[in-house]
Amino acid sequence: MKLLLQYLKNYKWLVVAALLLATVNQVFSLLDPWIFGEIVDRFANSPTTFDNGAPAMKTNISMA
After folding, report:
1. SS3 labels along the chain
2. What φ, ψ does residue 46 adopt, rounded to 5°?
3. Which residues on neighbouring strands pair with residue 49, listed in sequence order?
């Protein structure tokens, strides 16, 4: 371990940056399901399309 730390001493800021970016990546990975859950919940509560708020397409299918 001591030998590894001696090699990494010259690159300590690069190692710190890599660990920081890895942490940010993990935070976004944990937030991803929450963000998509919010999108799905909002659409499920008020299903409208994205063209001027027109209602979603309704079908008139009769089983006669």
Report:
1. CHHHHHHHHHHHHHHHHHHHHHHHHHHHHHHHHHHHHHHHHHHHHCCECCCCCCECCCCCCCCC
2. -145, 85
3. none
Cα gap 19→42, rounded to integer Å: 35
Q: Are 49 and 56 in contact (CB under 8 A)?
A: yes
Structure tokens at 18: 């890599």
Measure the CA–CA gap between 10 and 50, rounded to whole angstroms: 53
Contact between 48 and 54 (Cβ < 8 Å): yes
| pLDDT category of residue 41 using cuts at 50, 70 and 90 | confident
Q: What value does the mean pLDDT take over residues 29-49?
A: 83
User: What pTM was estimated for this model as a whole?
Assistant: 0.54
CA–CA gap between residue 50 and residue 64 (Å, rounded): 33
